[in-house]
Structures are given as C-alpha cells and as structure tokens.
Write a structure and sequence with these properties.
The structure is a single chain. The chain has nine helices and eight strands. It is α/β, with parallel strands linked by helices. The protein has a single domain (3-22, 36-223), classed as Rossmann fold (3-Layer(aba) Sandwich), CATH 3.40.50.300. The strands form two sheets. A five-stranded parallel beta sheet has the order 2-6-1-7-8, sandwiched between helices. Strands 3-4-5 form a three-stranded antiparallel beta sheet, with helices on one face.
C-alpha cells in the first residue's frame, strides 16, 4: 500500500472550515493531522520576526530553508514550533495573515514546504488540509475533498475565531481581506487554488459541523 492511499486531502479557500473539519476527521479515523497553512504562516512569521524585506525573494527562500519547523501534536492540540519557539498563537495574527501571500507565491518557498509536507505524509496515515493538497502535493491521494462556503459565511467564521482570541475585528475589512486572499490564491502562478478534477466539493454554508465531518469520514472509509 502506497502512502497516497492513506492520505485524505482537504482543500478550499480561507474560512471554509478546513482546519477544524480536518482535525475532526483525523481524530475520527486515528490519522495524523497536517495543517499546511500553519507551515506557510510559520515561514511568514519567521521572515517578519527577522525583519526581512518581503520583496527579497532570495532572502525569503533562504529563511524558509533555514527554518527549524516542528508540528507537535499535544493533548491541547497542534503546536507550531519554529527554531525552538512555540509560535502557535503568533502565526494567527492579522500581521502574519496579511503577509502570507508574499511567501506562498514564491516557487522556491513552496518547493521547500511541499517537500516537508510529502515527507510528513509518507510517515503515517494523514489528513492534510491546505489549498493545493489534491492538485500538487498529494495528487495520487484516493480521498480528495474541496470545502467551500459563501464569502459572508467564511467571514463570519473567521471573525468569531479572531474574537475568541481577543483580537478586534472589522468584519467588512475582514471580508475584503478574505476575498483578496481568494483572488491571490486562485491567480498565483505557482500551485494556484483549484479544485482537483477528482475531488468532491462540499459546500459548508449553513451546514452542521458534525454532518460535514461524518460525510468525509464515510467517504474516506469507502475509498481507503
């Protein structure tokens, strides 16, 4: 059995519920959870932390290559550790969110992180969420899901997440930011956000979380 037959990929735009759904699916199946968005956030945080020029492609690639990244599954959830520092909360700040596109459009950065993702996925059965899991990172995966929701729903969810962390939110500005990220993701030259031809699209707008998780778990059990 190849590693790809033990991988579930969940792609989709920002705020579609990928992370929370992927975590629940992984828990239900006893799989590892791979948050690839956290990896791009970690690389972005490191660049900002070191005061790098976000227009300097070579410096951003070098920073990503030098990054000592660990995704640690603990009782309290996934922790993101970079160069020995736990940055789980720091990578979710608006500053990092606004700057991610500067790195995820760079082919050299993507190549480094994709290699890490494939290495992680080869070690054990995994639920991987992101934006190019089914189209680029794990194209041979047998279970591919594309989660989507309308913009207002995605904005509402993201606003609630930020408020839970004590971060003030301007919902109109947040909606505009999410729309911009959608456009950047779909139009970037390298590994754009697309639904893989063999992926099942699930619109999460107005649907119960548990219902979506159950649907994906049932699909995974059918094909894996």
């Amino acid at each position: 059995m190849t590693p790809a037959t033990q991988i579930i990929v969940i792609d989709g735009p920002a705020g579609a519920g990928k992370s929370s759904v992927a975590k629940a699916v992984a828990h239900a199946l006893g799989f590892a959870f791979l948050d690839t968005g956290a990896m791009y956030r970690a690389a972005t945080w490191r660049a900002l932390h070191h005061g790098l020029d976000l227009g300097d492609t070579a410096a951003l690639i070098a920073s990503t290559r030098a990054m000592n990244l660990a995704l640690e599954e603990r009782a309290e959830g996934l922790r993101v550790v970079v160069d020995g520092e736990d940055i789980t909360d720091a990578i979710r700040t608006p500053e990092v969110t606004r700057a991610i596109f500067r790195l995820d459009q760079i082919a050299g950065v993507r190549e480094l992180l994709v290699a890490m993702q494939r290495e992680i996925g080869a070690k054990r059965p995994t639920v991987a969420e992101g934006r190019d899991m089914g189209s680029v990172v794990f194209p041979e995966a047998k279970c591919k899901i594309f989660l989507d929701a309308d913009l207002s729903e995605r904005s509402r969810r993201r606003a609630a997440q930020l408020r839970e962390k004590g971060i003030p939110v301007d919902e109109a500005a947040l909606a505009a930011e999410i729309h911009e990220r959608d456009e950047q993701g779909r139009n970037r030259e390298h590994a754009p956000l697309v639904q893989a031809a063999d992926a099942i699209r699930i619109d999460t707008t107005g649907r119960e979380f548990e219902e979506i998780v159950d649907e994906i778990v049932a699909r995974a059990r059918e094909v894996l």
